[in-house]
Write a structure and sequence with these properties.
It is a single chain. With 187 residues, this protein is mainly alpha-helical. 66% of the residues lie in helices and 3% in strands. It contains nine helices and two strands. The chain has a two-stranded antiparallel sheet.
């Protein structure tokens, strides 16, 4: 084989690799451009509100009056607001830093059909929530309720539930966002 033939084979192989790369990039781009259409189609379907009525919470939390519950949730929210979750990246949002006792209060607010007013939500909540559809938020809440049903033993003591850090910053963000907006979802 002479050097000219070898050079031609190398050029053809390089061109072939470039061509395959371009085709793969175009296919990926086409797939990504189809995704919003699929998402939009799904968001037109109305997902029902999460069912919380059958969820049992620790008895001491179930017994709270609406005003007691509201005061406690306000304190949990004050702690939430201090940490500026709006500015966190997704890895930080996925850290498990909240305990079951706190989450139980938030779920009780929903169970008692109480909305939690949060002004200036754009300055409080992460963009993943602000850009989420109503159906996305409902789905997120359904998964939180399912997690609670599957992993929480409500018969445990308050001390035990306060040591059970299985809830992420993302979970708490979703719950506060949902509580601040869910009554408009019910319409």
């Amino acid at each position: 084989m002479n050097s000219l033939t070898l050079t031609m084979i190398i050029i053809i192989l390089v061109l072939l690799v470039i061509l395959i790369s371009v085709v793969i990039m175009l296919l990926n781009k086409k797939t990504k451009s189809v995704s919003p259409v699929v998402k939009k189609r799904k968001s037109n379907e109305n997902i029902p509100m999460p069912n919380i009525l059958g969820l049992f919470l620790p008895p001491n939390i179930e017994k709270l009056s609406k005003s007691e519950l509201s005061g406690i949730v306000r304190k949990v929210y004050d702690a939430y607001r201090i940490f500026d979750y709006k500015s966190m990246d997704i890895n930080e949002l996925n850290k498990k830093e909240w305990h079951t006792w706190q989450i139980s209060f938030l779920l009780m607010m929903f169970k008692k059909n109480e909305e939690f007013f949060i002004p200036n939500q754009e300055s409080i909540f992460h963009s993943f929530l602000l850009n989420a559809s109503e159906n996305d938020i409902k789905s997120f809440m359904k998964s939180i309720i399912k997690k609670y049903e599957n992993y929480v033993n409500i018969e445990e003591t308050k001390d035990t539930l306060c040591k059970e850090h299985i809830w992420t910053n993302r979970d708490v963000s979703i719950m506060f966002y949902f509580l601040a907006n869910y009554k408009k979802y019910k319409k």
